[in-house]
Amino acid sequence: MRLLDSHSEIERDAEGTPFKIKYTWTQKVSGTWPQKGSSIGDIAKNAKVRVGQLTAKTWEWTSTQYDAERAVQPGKGTNYTLAFLDNGKFLVTANCGVWKGKYTFGGRSLAIDMSSNWLSGCRKDEVLRVFLDDLARARTAFIEDDRLQVTLAGSEGIMYFEGE
Fold this sequence. Notes:
Layout: E1 2-4, E2 8-11, E3 20-24, E4 30-33, H1 37-55, E5 58-65, E6 71-72, E7 81-84, E8 89-94, E9 97-106, E10 109-114, H2 126-136, E11 138-144, E12 147-152, E13 158-163
Antiparallel strand pairs: 1-2, 2-3, 3-4, 5-6, 5-7, 5-13, 7-8, 8-9, 9-10, 11-12, 12-13
């Protein structure tokens, strides 16, 4: 038996055997249910690889897309970079200074915890304020083609970064 639609696939190999459901999420998460014990180990190994990809580069923010009509990006001559460190901390570097915080990353789930250490020279940088507010709403992250994409809480947007 084989049923297909645009989002899922259900297979039954032969009469009397258990069926399995193949699925793909919009954020490129694929798998088979029910999972076997070895696939759980594979998931843990892949999560470790993803953390390594996240910490391997400094990420330069290129834009945040909120919807089809609204986006924000750094102004000409301004840079905002994000570096994830192995110890669960991160650094944001802007033209006017550095912002620090902590993060947790589990496969694709990303949580950002900002510490409040505004530098006086950054208070007038409105784009930095928007950038940091968006970063604080991060929920998931994935890397594709040397580009980091961070989705915001409530599906309110996607932040885009290029690897340096």
